[in-house]
């Protein structure tokens, strides 16, 4: 079974997203308590509206304003965004470099459990980036393999179609000239009901060419994998077994 390129790309994107740095509530509370008089500037820098800020001030005690601002901002961010870097940058812009560094030093919930020993934390941190690199490399390899398989399959389909479809212009013209009064039925069976009227109107004095034109139009528009077999069946359906036999035995020169 051919691997779906789209599925592999989604899997790779998921792996990358799940490895992005996050900020837990402990870190946000710590930063929020220290922001002090810069809370208004930070809120504006983070994109909160004046209404957001006033609601927070009315609903929470002063010492909790910082955390509430940060928490509201975090909830509005997309999951794929690196909020650790975004918050650090916002703090730098309001000249709170000290807090920006603390944000960068914060660990995500995965690495901040109180029960985790220093040795375990060091071990995880030491293996974190090789793991990410391995996921990225594996994803890229899968994508490349999928692309190669898709190209190979398309090439095989193209070869197969070339072997089985002997519908060259010579054959189409030959069948088209012999179709005669069955041209309307042929057009209907080929799904070219509307097109046959356009062909007739565009070349009203050359009825002998209508059949070829409708076959040519069908061949260019159809996505049927084996046009030769499809045309043979349609010719039989409209009672032209003689022409179906000619298509079946035709060999391109």
TrEMBL record:
Pfam families: Death (PF00531). GO terms for biological process: signal transduction. Transmembrane segments: none annotated. This is Uncharacterized protein. It comes from Owenia fusiformis (Polychaete worm). The lineage of its organism: Eukaryota, Metazoa, Spiralia, Lophotrochozoa, Annelida.
């Amino acid at each position: 079974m051919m691997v779906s390129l789209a599925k592999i790309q989604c899997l790779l994107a998921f792996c990358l997203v799940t490895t992005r740095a996050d900020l837990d509530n402990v870190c946000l509370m710590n930063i929020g308590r220290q922001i002090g008089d810069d809370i208004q500037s930070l809120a504006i820098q983070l994109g909160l509206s004046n209404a957001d800020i006033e609601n927070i001030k009315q609903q929470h005690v002063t010492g909790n304003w910082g955390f509430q601002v940060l928490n509201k901002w975090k909830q509005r961010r997309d999951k794929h965004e690196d909020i650790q870097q975004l918050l650090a940058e916002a703090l730098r812009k309001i000249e709170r470099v000290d807090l920006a560094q603390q944000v960068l030093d914060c660990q995500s919930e995965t690495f901040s459990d109180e029960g985790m020993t220093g040795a375990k934390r060091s071990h995880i941190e030491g293996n974190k980036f090789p793991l990410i690199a391995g996921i990225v490399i594996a994803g890229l390899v899968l994508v490349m393999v999928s692309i190669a398989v898709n190209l190979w399959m398309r090439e095989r389909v193209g070869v197969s179609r070339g072997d089985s479809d002997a519908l060259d212009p010579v054959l189409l013209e030959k069948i088209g000239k012999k179709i005669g009064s069955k041209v309307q039925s042929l057009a209907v069976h080929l799904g070219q009901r509307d097109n046959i009227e356009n062909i007739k109107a565009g070349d009203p004095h050359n009825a002998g060419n209508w059949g070829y034109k409708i076959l040519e139009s069908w061949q260019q528009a159809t996505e049927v994998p084996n046009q030769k077999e499809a045309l043979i069946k349609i010719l039989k359906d409209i009672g032209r077994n003689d022409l179906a036999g000619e298509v079946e035995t035709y060999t391109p020169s």
